[in-house]
Amino acid sequence: MDAQERIIEQRKAKHKKTAFIIKCIIALIVLCIVVLAVILIKAGFIDGQVDETIRNTKSTLTGKSADHVAVSGEAVTEGSSETEGAPDHTQAALASAKLLAQQYDYDGAIALLEAESDFNTNTQFQNAVGSYREKKQNLKAYPAGQVTHIFFHSLIVDTSLAFDADEDADGYNQYMVTIREFNSIIQQMYDKGYVMISPHDMCTVNEDGTVTAKDIYLPDGKIPFVLSQDDVSYYHYMDGDGFAQKLIVDENGEIKNTYAEADGTVRTGDYDLVPLVDDFVREHPDFSYHGHKGVIALTGYEGVLGYRTDEVYKTREAGRVTEYQQKFFDNNPDFDFDSEAAQAKQVADAMKAEGWEFASHTWGHIDPVNAGYDKVVTDTERYKTWMEPIIGPTDILIFAFGADIGDWQNYSSDNQLFTYYKSQGFNIFCNVDSSRTNWVQFGDNYMRQARRNIDGYSMSHRADSLSDLFNVSEAWDSSRPQVPDL
User: Fold this and answer.
1) Which pLDDT belongs to residue 56?
2) Residue 262's pLDDT is what?
3) At what angle do helices 88-102 and 106-114 cross, to 10 degrees?
């Protein structure tokens, strides 16, 4: 070996030695930080912020982003605390599987990882699957017949406008809750272990039209419930009374509301139930069963979701245009029906992708028995013609006024209204009964569920009946006046 070759070999050895020393220093720094964090945690000086500091420090030292190190403050994979150095596709698959598992879809999480081409050689995938299988085995069956169903109306944004002593103030006070109250209710229910499910998690609709009950499987201590919201049409009469205007899809692809301030300024944000629940689930994914959220019950006579999509807005047929609708036309001379309907459909599609479902609240907010068979047929035809193209088909019928098409006995083929609604594709029927925590009935070809109203009246006059859900005194908005009796 000549002198030049010796010099090259010496330089290589020196580089290796330097690299080894740097790696040792980095490892020592990380170890010191971890030890210091443990000491501080045990001493009570710091809390969960340590996790974020450690993640960010690791990110700096290793050149990886914090998202690659951990997700939501926890290791990406179940059963493994170390994921550094894993390929990006491994990190992405583990994160996706973790979200499914957080929402109790262990089968989905397992299937996702087992479908990866390198599953047989990837110990992180295999460890995660093993953890999910173990958690699935520990799930408890919750009978569909014990599931409670709660519902709200539009949420009050500005109490000074809603409770301003005009002709609508008492109704808002009796039938609505404020955003502050809603946020407290949802947080309290989450803390108690409640988990949102879909009515379709409670039953199976078979190809022959029969309907059978099915259990919901959750960890011990979790309680399934159905959430719904009525009249999400943002009716004209509510303008200027402290409610949201409509639902939109913002520039980030998230579902939000528009809200008009008293000075006319229009803002975008979380001004009603849908975006508030979406944000809550982003922070608490385990509040949602398999990604399911609530059921939005819609009428159509003034459009849906805040969009003026009913026939009268297109035809402006004389004799059908109300005073409110004429005022809308006067204030919006450039209104374009086709554009309005297209925007409404975009929002509805985005909501369904986020786990929301739609239900018919009847096109005209009618009580079917009082309306009579002929009007029910006309009403349903309008629903099919003007609402279904926007929100898509649904088999859930949520009766307006808390009405029903029969007494507490089972529906039968002799019930003309039931037979008609069933022929139009409805399988799940919901009335209102707040006298009990739950009521579910299964017939051969339908499921019927009672709902509990959460509003100013129930919180003021029947607070004890809500104690299984939340503490009314904790949720109560101090800006709400005394709630009048019905």
Assistant:
1) 38
2) 86
3) 160
Please, what's the b/e burial string for 189-210 (b: 16 or more CB within 10 A of its CB; e: otherwise)? bbeeebbbbbbbbbbebeeeee
The candidate with the shortest Cα–Cα distance to 446, out of 484, 413, 473, is: 413
- Given a contact cutoff of 8 angstroms between Cβ atoms, the answer to whether 345 and 390 are in contact is yes
Per-residue pLDDT tens for 290-329? 999 999 999 999 999 999 999 999 999 999 999 999 999 9
How many whole angstroms separate alpha carbon 377 and alpha carbon 375? Answer: 5
Residue 36 has pLDDT above 80, yes or no: no
pLDDT tops 60 at residue 2: no
The strand pairing partners of 413, in sequence order, are none
Structure confidence at residue 486 (pLDDT):
85
Q: What is the pLDDT of residues 400-451, one digit of tens each?
A: 999 999 999 999 999 999 999 999 999 999 999 999 999 999 999 999 999 9
Q: Can you tell me the distance from the alpha carbon of 341 to that of 111, in angstroms, rounded to the nearest whole number?
A: 38
CA distance 485 to 474: 22
Statement: residue 13 has pLDDT above 60: no
Give the C-alpha separation, 263 to 255, whole Å.
24
For domain 141-475, give the CATH number: 3.20.20.370
SS (H, E, C) the chain: CCHHHHHHHHHHHHHHHHHHHHHHHHHHHHHHHHHHHHHHHHHCCCCCHHHHHHHHHHHHHHCCCHHHHCECCECCCCCCCCCCCCCHHHHHHHHHHHHHHHCCCHHHHHHHHHCCCCHHHCHHHHHHHHHHHHHHHCCEEECHHHCEEEEECCCECCHHHHCCCCCCHHHHHHHCCEHHHHHHHHHHHHHHCEEEECHHHCEEECCCCCEEECCEEECCCCEEEEEEEECCCCCHHHCCCCCCCEEEECCCCCEEEEEECCCCCEEEECCCHHHHHHHHHHHCHHHEHHHCCCEEEECCECEECCECCCHHHHHCCCCCCCHHHHHHHHHCCCCCHHHHHHHHHHHHHHHHHCCCEEEECCCCCCCHHHHCHHHHHHHHHHHHHHHHHHHCCCCEEECHHHCCCCCCCCCCCCCHHHHHHHHCCCCEEEEECCCCCCCEEEECCEEEEEEEECCHHHHHHCHHHHCCCCCHHHHCCCCCCCCCCC
Domain residues of the chain, as ranges?
3-140, 141-475
* Contacts of residue 279, Cβ cutoff 8 Å, sequence gap at least 6: 270
Q: Distance (Å, rounded) from C-alpha 292 to C-alpha 225?
A: 11
User: How many alpha carbons fall within 13 Å on the CB side of residue 150?
Assistant: 23
